[in-house]
């Protein structure tokens, strides 16, 4: 492991392993099969890239997307790690050159799409058998599972791996948090007594906010105005709303492009590339956008409409902050969306599917409706992980709630449920309380006691009250498609006056109080500009040169000499030689102009801080 550590420092410029990296690398070096479950941005790639450098033979990496392969290989090359990819974008000649280089052991990592292996003539398989293969890495391994969100039939063929190469270790990697998919991966891949590494799926650097959808456009504009320098993804449900929003933002001078399946493939690819290369800041998209986006400096993900389940929400928000820096996930929530999504969840002729989709939707609604308990805890619990009661970085944790005696209102709500004999959903009970004249209201119910008794309280307020009662177990919801509210054991004691209930009454503005490391913002901007130029010259996305985290460290610690740079995360020996001078020059000049002193000697403290904020 000594050597693994050395490589981490000298080649990749990182001080310490993260999460399960070290254990996973150890297992692979011991020639064991492994499954690595790590959240996005956790650092899965190093788990096979470092062994690849230590093994004598070739490491073959299976990856589902051409764009991902290309960027990974560019990144490796910048660290002087001999690597290549084979895919349909290359000419035959280029491909045979690569194979020749592999044969001569000039290449350590070879990236491929899964369909390569089992092409009819099995030529490629024979080729691999004729050379020294040390390791197979299967990236995005959830693609093998029908349960997963991104099933790819060609991945199923990979189950034959172990038969063809019984003695070559296989490491499978995924960011899928869902347990069914995990189990499925293990079964389908036929791994030999694999070691399984499960990291926490907590994305500490992502701060979660859910806001009511009223005036969401204006709220969005205010937010974007404050984050003009940042990259972000804005998700909307329909193509039409994507187009409209992108147009409006463009009109207001934002650097933005739309992305959805209705656009020409060329336009789509172009918009995605512009975004990845930082040539535009904002992409407005349907959920068609995002798979395989490796861009590390996405600072915010905004949902203008509610995602259809918690898995999608986690997946989509997870595209923020791969570089470990603070990022925000904001979701605008409304009841209207729930209605829409309920309709989409109705799959004709497939009651089973409908039931699953509606149940997942209801869970998402619960997640949004609950305003007072920690979002992060809710998310992690959903994925079967424990978490303390508060995280300090979600709207629930950051909001000050004032509680007041809500016993009277709670009793009205509970009586209404009782009167209606637990046969209706929340909305109906609220309509009843408010004395609604809507056609949906049954004539007979309008004659019951309590009808209209809560007319002085707004619908919104009732909703929040009901969901609080549900969250706290005073009421329960039953059924998926149209969940009804029911009594629980706890309801009784409130109704008969034995228990007082304190309810959320006043909510002060949620303000993220984030302690940020002080850095020189202008310098940060200059460094980004330099990175942009270098990326353009090298024909790679900016984050492949350096992540935002590296630039931020430069702008914080203000190194003045080349050796100082080695203390900056992301500067390995190769990058130091290649990029050290120009970046240092920008920092030194900046400090000279402003008479700023270096803070590199404070670096140690910072690392501890950074770690607690990112890993
Ligand atoms: P994943 O594939 O799990 O989403 P990546 O392998 O792309 O994550 O890594 C995410 C980012 O974190 C990359 O910029 C990578 O270089 C960086 N990284 C990985 N391991 C470490 C580490 N031990 N210390 C600091 N940064 C790391
Ligand atoms: Zn929280």
Briefly characterize the structure.
This protein is 45% helix and 14% strand. With 615 residues, it is an alpha/beta fold.
How does the major sheet shape up?
A: 7 strands, parallel
**Extended strand count:** 17
Count of runs of 4 or more consecutive helical residues: 27
* Strands side by side in the biggest sheet: 3-4-2-5-6-1-7
- Coarse morphology: globular
Pairing-aware structural class of the strands and helices?
alpha/beta
Number of structural units classed as domains: 4
- What is the top-level CATH class of the largest domain? Alpha Beta
Distance between the termini: 21 Å
Strand content: 5-15%
* CATH architecture identity of the largest domain: 3-Layer(aba) Sandwich
Low-confidence stretches: 510-515, 605-615
Q: In CATH terms, what is the fold-level topology of the largest domain?
A: Rossmann fold
Bound molecules: adenosine-5'-diphosphate, zinc ion
Share of helical residues = 40-55%
Give short descriptive properties of this protein.
17 strands; binds zinc ion; 615 residues; Rossmann fold; alpha/beta; six-stranded parallel beta sheet; seven-stranded parallel beta sheet; globular; disordered C terminus; binds adenosine-5'-diphosphate
């Amino acid at each position: 492991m000594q050597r693994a550590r050395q490589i981490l420092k000298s080649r990749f410029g990182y001080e310490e392993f993260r999460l399960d990296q070290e254990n996973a690398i150890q297992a692979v070096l011991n020639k064991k099969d492994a499954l690595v479950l790590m959240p996005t941005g956790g650092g899965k790639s190093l788990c096979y890239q470092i062994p690849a450098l230590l093994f004598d033979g070739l490491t073959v990496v299976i990856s589902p997307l051409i764009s991902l392969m290309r960027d990974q290989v560019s990144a490796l090359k910048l660290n002087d790690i001999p690597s290549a990819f084979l895919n349909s974008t290359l000419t035959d000649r280029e491909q045979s050159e690569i194979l020749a280089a592999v044969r001569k052991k000039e290449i350590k990592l070879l990236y491929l799409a899964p369909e390569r292996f089992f092409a009819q003539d099995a030529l490629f398989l024979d080729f691999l058998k004729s050379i020294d293969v040390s390791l197979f890495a299967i990236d995005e391994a959830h693609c093998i599972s029908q349960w997963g969100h991104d099933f790819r039939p060609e991945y199923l063929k990979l189950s034959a791996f172990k038969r063809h190469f019984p003695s070559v270790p296989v490491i499978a990697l995924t960011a899928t948090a869902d347990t069914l998919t995990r189990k499925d991966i293990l079964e389908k891949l036929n791994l030999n007594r694999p070691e399984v590494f499960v990291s926490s799926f907590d994305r500490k650097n992502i701060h979660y906010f859910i806001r009511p959808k009223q005036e969401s456009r204006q709220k969005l504009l205010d937010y974007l105005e404050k984050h003009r320098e940042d990259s972000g993804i804005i998700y909307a449900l329909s193509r039409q709303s994507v187009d409209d929003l992108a147009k409006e933002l463009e009109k207001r001078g934002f650097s933005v492009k739309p992305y959805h399946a209705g656009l020409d493939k060329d336009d789509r690819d172009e918009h995605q590339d512009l975004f990845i290369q930082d040539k535009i800041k904002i992409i407005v998209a349907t959920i068609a956008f995002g798979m395989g986006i490796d861009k590390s400096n996405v600072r915010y993900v905004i949902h203008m409409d509610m995602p259809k389940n918690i898995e999608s929400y986690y997946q989509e928000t997870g595209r923020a902050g791969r570089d470990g820096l603070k990022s925000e996930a904001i979701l605008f929530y409304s009841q209207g969306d729930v209605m829409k999504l309920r309709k989409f969840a109705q799959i004709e002729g497939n009651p089973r599917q409908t039931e699953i989709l509606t149940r997942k939707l209801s869970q998402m609604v619960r997640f949004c409706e609950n305003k007072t308990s920690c979002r992060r805890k809710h998310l992690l619990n959903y994925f079967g992980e424990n978490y303390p009661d508060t995280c300090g970085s979600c709207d629930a944790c950051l909001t000050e709630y004032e509680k007041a005696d809500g016993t009277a209102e709670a009793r009205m709500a509970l009586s209404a449920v009782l009167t209606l004999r637990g046969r209706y959903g929340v909305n109906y009970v609220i309509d009843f309380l408010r004395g609604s004249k809507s056609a949906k209201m049954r004539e007979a119910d309008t004659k019951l006691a309590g009808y209209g008794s809560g007319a002085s309280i707004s619908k919104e307020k009732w909703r929040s009250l009901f969901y609080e009662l549900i969250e706290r177990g005073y009421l329960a919801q039953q059924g998926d498609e149209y969940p009804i509210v029911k009594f629980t054991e706890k309801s009784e004691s409130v109704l008969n006056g034995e228990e007082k209930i304190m309810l959320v009454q006043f909510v002060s503005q949620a303000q993220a109080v984030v302690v940020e490391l002080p850095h020189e913002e202008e310098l940060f901007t200059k460094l980004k500009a330099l990175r942009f130029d270098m990326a353009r010259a090298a024909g790679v996305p900016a984050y492949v040169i350096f992540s935002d985290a590296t630039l931020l460290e430069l702008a914080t610690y203000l190194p003045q000499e080349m050796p100082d740079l080695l203390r900056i995360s992301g500067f390995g020996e190769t990058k130091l030689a290649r990029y050290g001078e120009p970046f240092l020059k920008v920092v030194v000049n900046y400090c000279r102009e402003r008479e700023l002193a270096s803070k590199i000697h404070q670096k140690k403290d910072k690392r501890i801080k950074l770690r607690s904020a990112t890993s």
